[in-house]
């Protein structure tokens, strides 16, 4: 039930909000709402941040909010707009209008290429920015927290032809939250009780866009070990999924500790990090925290000239 989900999130959201307050909102430009941006079956709102100085044919970052949140809240409370000022890309902030303020990551429509619901509206936003802001359709990325992290997984599964990479903070694998009863909530998945083989997880992604044979997006996964809302086993299941989709081993190519309570595992494909998992010891459902956004931008390659 959505009500149960929102109740479970109260403590986590308060922690998350506290972390957001430490981030500095962008000041060089302002967030603008865009209307009539294209096909939008679930009545999403679109907010766009364009820095005063952008690169020629700038990259696009889609930044997807958590449950109970909004596009403007994710803009003001995370570092992505400030990083856009620094590196010259543009940021789309989708915003849910349904009562739960959660993205649809569970319906059959949402889990299929061009199937309908929120993913279609978000891709319409991307296409609008490509057309109206001279953005680079070959450099489109997505990141999100909680419900937004789940949507990050969904978008990479539904639209591997649109998104080049994603970074999911405290999410679940593609298809894990699937329901057929109209509910937005899947307790078994949230509790980390859905365990599949890498092949089974990969098959769920491949079934979202039958016949697609092009390159698959890169994926960066973040999860706190004490997450009590979307529990930590989902982190390992997502690594199984995206390494299988990429056709690479579940054994990490490298393991290191960028910070004392972080463990980062990387899974390479032809010398490129295709999947990266960052486990945060002792942290709950309160990601991203200060400084993590820079790691996302580095993973995407947006911090390079």
UniProtKB/TrEMBL annotation:
Species annotation: Kibdelosporangium banguiense
Signal peptide coordinates: 1-28
Recorded superkingdom: Bacteria
The name this protein goes by in its record: Poly(Hydroxyalkanoate) depolymerase family esterase
Listed InterPro entries: AB_hydrolase_fold (IPR029058), Esterase_phb (IPR010126), Plant_Biomass_Hydrol_Est (IPR050955)
Keywords: Hydrolase, Signal
Taxonomic lineage from the root: Bacteria, Bacillati, Actinomycetota, Actinomycetes, Pseudonocardiales
Gene3D superfamilies named among the record's database cross-references: alpha/beta hydrolase
Keyword Hydrolase assigned: yes
């Amino acid at each position: 039930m959505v009500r149960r989900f929102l109740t479970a999130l109260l403590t986590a959201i308060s922690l998350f909000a506290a972390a957001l307050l430490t981030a500095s909102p962008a000041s060089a430009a302002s967030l603008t709402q865009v209307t009539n941006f294209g096909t939008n079956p679930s009545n999403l709102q679109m907010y766009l941040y364009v820095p005063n100085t952008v690169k020629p044919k700038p990259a696009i970052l889609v930044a997807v909010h958590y449950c109970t949140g909004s596009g403007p809240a994710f803009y003001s409370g995370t570092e992505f707009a400030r990083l856009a000022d620094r590196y010259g890309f543009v940021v789309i902030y989708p915003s849910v209008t349904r009562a739960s303020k959660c993205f649809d990551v569970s319906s059959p429509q949402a889990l299929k290429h061009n199937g309908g619901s929120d993913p279609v509206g978000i891709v319409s936003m991307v296409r609008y920015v490509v057309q109206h802001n001279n953005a680079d359709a070959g450099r489109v990325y997505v990141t999100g927290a909680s419900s937004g992290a789940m949507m990050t997984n969904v978008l990479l599964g539904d639209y591997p032809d649109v998104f080049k990479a994603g970074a999911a903070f405290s999410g679940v694998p593609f298809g894990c939250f699937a329901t057929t009863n109209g509910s937005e909530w899947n307790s078994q998945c949230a509790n980390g009780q859905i365990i599949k083989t890498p092949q089974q997880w990969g098959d769920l992604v491949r079934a979202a866009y039958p016949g697609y044979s092009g390159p698959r997006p890169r994926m960066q996964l973040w999860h706190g070990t004490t997450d009590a809302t979307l529990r930590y086993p989902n982190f390992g299941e997502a690594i199984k999924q995206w390494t299988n989709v990429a056709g690479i081993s579940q054994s990490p190519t490298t393991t290191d500790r960028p910070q004392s309570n972080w463990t980062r595992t990387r899974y390479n494909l032809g010398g490129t990090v295709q999947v990266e998992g960052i486990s945060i010891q002792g942290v709950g459902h309160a990601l991203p925290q200060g400084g993590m956004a820079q790691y996302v931008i580095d993973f995407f390659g947006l911090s390079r000239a």
